[in-house]
Amino acid sequence: MHGNSPANVVQASGTPAPRNIHSKKTQILEESNIVGEPPPSRDAGIEGEVEAVLALLSIHDYDRARTSVAQLITGRKGEYIFRIGCQPSHASLFAGESVDDATEWSGVPRTDVEVASLQSSVKRVVEELGGKVSVLFETTDGHHPRATLLLRLPPPSIELVPEVRCAVVGNVDSGKSTTLGVLTRGPLDDGRGRARVALFRHKHEIETGRTSSVGMEILGFSTAGTPVLPNILPSADANVIRRDKLGWDEISAQSAKIVSFSDLAGHERYLKTTLYGLTSGAPSCVILMVGANAGLIGMSKEHLAIALALSVPVVVCITKIDMTPPNILNETTKQVVKILKSPGCRKTPVFVNSMEVAVESSQTFAQYKLCPIFRVSNVTGEGLDYFRTFLNLLPSSEADTETFTVDQPLEYSVTDVWSVPYVGTVVNGILNSGSVKTGDSVLFGPDSNGHFQSTVVRSMQRKRYFQFLLAFSVAEAGQCVALALKRVKRAAVRKGMVIVHKADTPPKATRQFEGQVLILYHNTTMQRNYQAMLHCGAVRQTVRIITMDNAEGVLRTGDRATVQFEFITQPEFVKVGMKLLFREGKTKGLGVITRLL
Length: 597
Fold this sequence. Notes:
Radius of gyration: 25 Å
Largest sheet: 8 strands, mixed
């Protein structure tokens, strides 16, 4: 197994870091808010609302109960996790010990008869509202009978289907494409790459079995909480799996929630593509795939370091447990836990070995620095049910109101541009703030001179690969949408531009800016005029160092400094507080923009 000291988590793969830099790395990672926190306790206010509903159902007051349940579900984007009976504390649940021995419980105790009766009452009320109830977890034996239900209403229209964006990363041969193939197609793998063939887009990928491009896959979940999958027999061969697939429009029409996966490349030569996918795609979580037979090696540590630098929640998925001897699986598990607990990560590992842990961790892992660990086999199917349930319950990306604010002015990052026949120039990207509707007058830029050009949004569509859904009129912060721009040449738009509403004072493009940075790894020293590739949101451009506040005038591995950068080619639209990553070959640095010059 490869070494797994804390330093290895945040450095270029395969290169030993000097010993004296640990404290500096820890310091800046802590300041980036990458620190561990104790598992949370349950929200008493919400518990009170649930108990009030259960009290109404106990006295058969269905009308008032229906109103309360409707408020609960609509207040949480159309779905709600409803708990009946006493619930164990998260601390004891996530510790991996037997829950029956737990001392801390919350909620009102119920008998198994009461739990069953209340379940059927809740089902009746939700179905009267037009929704569906699915039982996520239920136990009637033991001292604490309890049940957890998912209450979900169908979305009002296709374009309002909530979406969760997940980026899938990991080393070469860690099972990324195979796991996604099994999740999105249904049939298990045969151990020889049958499941992943359906995901590959190029002939050389099928021949080598290695992803070279950013693959996009979606997994839909119905109102009843079941995955939307094509009808493929378990014994089908690779050609049948590749051919018999549902279109993205069909999946969207049948789904009440969609999980969008970016299948990023694992190979070192495609790191540029993977970095751009992570910085521009604004994923809600990063799923780090680790092959149980190989451990956390190579690019896995690089990908983990990038996810931590961008403050994106991480989920670890250990694959290939069917072919790995128990002693090697234990070694891999210990290595993953050691790295997650190291000073560079400060995550609390939570092994998902029951449906109850899968349900509760999906709601709390992002805000409390937990890292759920799944152990799955794509050949036997072991552990996949927990993983599917976890994905089904993840909060939607647009529900993250801290990152995406609707009441702020429009800001839209362009991550893709193409020319569509009979439509014109179409851009794809993410609404960082505000809202936009068809017919709006907008500005796009900056161009090479730092100016913004005006145009009109001709039409708007939710991007579903190369097939588009029905046009719709309004898009809000957090959504990933495609905009057709009126009378704009394809060459006039590029990745990294922004689109804003027309105003009296157009936004200002930035050529020079100041940032606080930490050098994670560099084999010599960095001086003035040093050049590197900068990734900052959807912006990807070469920058050079103008000045630094280091007394020696040079930066080495582990140094922290306030550095002034200048864009080489053209000015860009960046803001104070944005995270930045820069690289040049194996050089890695991370930081945050503190001032625009």
